[in-house]
């Protein structure tokens, strides 16, 4: 790819990342092009669909999530790794409205996009949960789908704006509810 093409692609990705983070998945491609200072044809040359553009952005986030999950799994005890990742994922989703919408199932499959990019995000998250359950820190009846729904709940209350203290409180409540029953006293 020519140097100007690489620059334009980066401009589009940066503009789209900012737009999706603040406005969610509904932002029009024409608005992304305007913010990037390019035409809609340039956007479609690099990303033939809005979904392809969003997938490129999600893959950047997924790489970070997988790396964080792997780091926590390798360096922290199972309960700290799982609950640390849960809090981190809530923060990332709160900072990126589009990612939060995708996690909630708004027409974009984050797990499938991660797999196409060579990342097993769902497997890493399931491993963190299984490790914490095996250590007796998390209730054995909790499933990865339960955890995903709880993450969505963490950021749902911030639809009108960021409330970090409120998000921390919700994460603490969820953490208490996920702990194995003999650890909840």
UniProtKB/TrEMBL annotation:
<dbReference type="InterPro" id="IPR001647">
    <property type="entry name" value="HTH_TetR"/>
</dbReference>
<keyword id="KW-0804">Transcription</keyword>
<dbReference type="Pfam" id="PF00440">
    <property type="entry name" value="TetR_N"/>
</dbReference>
<dbReference type="InterPro" id="IPR049445">
    <property type="entry name" value="TetR_SbtR-like_C"/>
</dbReference>
<dbReference type="InterPro" id="IPR036271">
    <property type="entry name" value="Tet_transcr_reg_TetR-rel_C_sf"/>
</dbReference>
<protein>
    <submittedName>
        <fullName>TetR/AcrR family transcriptional regulator</fullName>
    </submittedName>
</protein>
<feature type="DNA-binding region" description="H-T-H motif">
    <location>
        <begin position="28"/>
        <end position="47"/>
    </location>
</feature>
<dbReference type="InterPro" id="IPR050109">
    <property type="entry name" value="HTH-type_TetR-like_transc_reg"/>
</dbReference>
<keyword id="KW-0805">Transcription regulation</keyword>
<dbReference type="Pfam" id="PF21597">
    <property type="entry name" value="TetR_C_43"/>
</dbReference>
<dbReference type="InterPro" id="IPR009057">
    <property type="entry name" value="Homeodomain-like_sf"/>
</dbReference>
<feature type="domain" description="HTH tetR-type">
    <location>
        <begin position="6"/>
        <end position="65"/>
    </location>
</feature>
<keyword id="KW-0238">DNA-binding</keyword>
């Amino acid at each position: 790819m020519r140097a100007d093409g690489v620059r334009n692609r980066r401009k589009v990705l940066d503009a789209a990342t900012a737009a999706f983070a603040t406005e969610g998945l509904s932002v029009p491609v024409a608005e992304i092009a305007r913010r990037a200072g390019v035409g809609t044809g340039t956007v479609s040359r690099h990303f033939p669909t809005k979904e392809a553009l969003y997938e490129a952005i999600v893959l950047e986030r997924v790489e970070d999530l997988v790396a964080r999950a792997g780091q926590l799994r390798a360096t922290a005890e199972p309960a700290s790794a799982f609950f640390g990742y849960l809090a981190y994922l809530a923060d990332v989703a709160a900072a990126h409205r589009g990612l939060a919408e995708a996690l909630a199932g708004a027409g974009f499959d984050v797990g499938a996009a991660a797999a196409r990019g060579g990342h097993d995000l769902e497997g890493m998250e399931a491993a963190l949960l299984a490790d914490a359950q095996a250590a007796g820190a998390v209730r054995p009846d909790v499933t990865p789908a339960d955890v995903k729904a709880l993450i969505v709940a963490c950021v749902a209350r911030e639809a009108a704006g960021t409330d970090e203290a409120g998000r921390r409180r919700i994460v603490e409540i969820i953490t208490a509810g996920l702990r194995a029953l003999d650890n909840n006293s």
